[in-house]
Each structure stands twice: as C-alpha cells, then as structure tokens.
Amino acid sequence: MILLDTQTLVWYLTADRRLGPKATKKLIGSENLYFSTLSILEYEIKLFDRSLGGQQKVLSAANEAGMLELKPSGEELQRALDFPALSKHDPFDRALVMQASWHNAQLYTSDAKLLSLNLSWIVDSQL
C-alpha cells in the first residue's frame, strides 16, 4: 500500500517533474495507490496548485487515475504520541503519518521534516 502526501499527490496528478524518476516508476501502474481524504481538505485550504481547479478537480483527477481514497478514522488519528518529533509540525502531515503507520503503508513525501524521521516506510518522492 502506498499513500501519497498532498504535495506528492498534486505532482503525480499533474505529471510534475519534481516527482523523481524512481518515485514515478514505482507509482505509475501501482494497484495499491492511495490518497487521503485529508489531502483533499488540505488542498482546498491551501490551494497548492490552482491549475487543478480546487477540491472537485483533485478528487476527480485522483479517481480517474485509479487511485483509492483512504478515509481517516479516529483510531488512526489518535496516535500523535507515537510521533513526538512532529508535535509542532503541520497537522495535515502529522495526520498522514499516523494514517500511513496505522495501515502499514509507505508514505511518499518531499517534506524534509518527515524524511528526517528516518523511518523506512517514509519515502522521498523527489528521488
């Protein structure tokens, strides 16, 4: 199972060159490629890339790409104490880490703070 963080999701959906070749090869054609419902919310709040046109476009683009939606549960999101190094970090990133951990998923991200955790299941999406 592969979960994309919000920035990586946008890069994947827009074929952005910042998504690294190794990550691109792994993601294209993957049958277990997920995005979080939380990424739709984060995108809508921050509007990373206006070219997709907001929430409905991101959701429909992800669905059209064959991605699966991962909806968070309370059990997943109450694991903040498992990641004390993220206590002051972006709450969306923290939630995605908790989701990935709960589901034993690889989390693809370009976030330096998340990558600095040196967890084998957090993967640099720029490689």
UniProtKB/TrEMBL annotation:
<protein>
    <submittedName>
        <fullName>PIN domain-containing protein</fullName>
    </submittedName>
</protein>
<keyword id="KW-0460">Magnesium</keyword>
<keyword id="KW-0479">Metal-binding</keyword>
<keyword id="KW-0540">Nuclease</keyword>
<dbReference type="Pfam" id="PF01850">
    <property type="entry name" value="PIN"/>
</dbReference>
<dbReference type="GO" id="GO:0046872">
    <property type="term" value="F:metal ion binding"/>
</dbReference>
<dbReference type="InterPro" id="IPR029060">
    <property type="entry name" value="PIN-like_dom_sf"/>
</dbReference>
<feature type="domain" description="PIN">
    <location>
        <begin position="2"/>
        <end position="114"/>
    </location>
</feature>
<keyword id="KW-0378">Hydrolase</keyword>
<dbReference type="GO" id="GO:0016787">
    <property type="term" value="F:hydrolase activity"/>
</dbReference>
<dbReference type="InterPro" id="IPR002716">
    <property type="entry name" value="PIN_dom"/>
</dbReference>
<dbReference type="GO" id="GO:0004518">
    <property type="term" value="F:nuclease activity"/>
</dbReference>
